[in-house]
TrEMBL record:
Its cofactor is Mg(2+). This is Glutamine synthetase. It comes from Alicyclobacillus mengziensis. The gene is glnA. Residues 95-464 form the GS catalytic domain. It catalyses: L-glutamate + NH4(+) + ATP = L-glutamine + ADP + phosphate + H(+). Mg(2+) binds at E120, E122, E201, E209, H258, E348. Binds 2 Mg(2+) ions per subunit.
Amino acid sequence: MRQNNVEMVDFRIVDVPGRQHHVTIPAVEVDEEVLESGIAFDGSSIQGFRGIEESDMVMRPVLESAFVDPFMAVPTLSLSCSVYEPNGTRFDRDPRFIAEKAEMYLKQTGVASTAYFGPELEFFIFDDVRFESSNRGAFYQVDSEEAMWNTASGEKNLGYKVKNKGGYFPVPPVDSQQDIRTEMVKELMNAGIRVERHHHEVATAGQAEINFRFSTLTRTADNVMTYKYIIRNVAHKYGKSVTFMPKPVFGDNGSGMHVHQSLFNGDVPLFYEEGQYANLSDMALHYIGGILEHAPALLAFATPSTNSFKRLVPGFEAPVNLVFSKGNRSAAIRVPVAAVTPKTARIEFRTPDCTANPYLAFAAMLMAGLDGIKRKIDPRALGYGPLDKNIYELPAEEKAKIRSVPGSLEEVLSALESDYEFLLEGGVFTKDFIKTWIDFKRTNEVAALNLRPHPLEFQMYYDL
């Protein structure tokens, strides 16, 4: 704080759905006692936390999360926080605590000492977004200067629009967002996040990807929250808007969050064994087996929005097939094989998306993988692959044998209702939390959407 002449300190927490909240304190009021003891807040006003009758809670900063916020008018230090009860015990619905408990459970099992996670977040950068849902009508509309639908728009048009499904790696001027992504990268690096690359993604209308370096489970989830904050605010500074929605544009690719995962014991990688399929160890195969076996329930945390299932549609390039493969990007799990060493051996779960709360999603993935290791679930014996063929060219009878992910949020919530025991191991998740999650999603998202007329219904049914 002294080195950067900090005037304000921002304390941040994450609610159960995965949104950040903050409170700001003058730096002159932040001493060692405040940093150790934390500050009080009203938990009843945070989604998924507490009722009004037991609302007093405490947030305590995680010092290693500190970075100087580049978007505030005065020098401001940002700190992620953990949530505590007034008596000093951890709050069991705090998503960050659930992630930490998953890491503690991993060590207790003796299977490994560390789980590394490396998510790839995709997003859209729009120039305009409008939407409304009321009792008299509903609509949404997005726009992007580079979108294919704008080839004939504007008083002056220089062309170089991104074709549908033609946005992967074009150079400027087709890639019109090189500079804004570069500024995003610089701010991420200034915040202490190690960035590996950035590029335009497949879809038209400003789809982008910026990849950062893997880290431990909870630290990676912290980085995801910082990443989203920085990406949105750099875009806002440019007069643009970012969304991490999985499917904001009809008829083109959606945005996912491919999650790379590996286990280590100290410095020893545990997912590598030369000579086996894709150089995967038996432990890695069992970890894959756990994720694929529990995938329908797991997706209640990893693809937890109604919009998630607009992306996960069979027959397109979405990772809906419950198989693993070393080359097939429509498989739920891909095993990277290019430029892989023993220490970079990993699995990539491609089905998740960025509407997930990263603390909950990563914890649930680890618990599913550990259950696979504990029970020695062999994905080959259960018909989960490996499948290194082009699924779209398979004969119909062979294609019919491939299981797909559920088709809606309601289906994955039902799957979680009947398959959650693996999440309770080590007290990582609780029955109360899982029930709260299911009830919240059904009431506030599934039912809310089902109750409302859709604009397409007017087109389909108005004249019947």
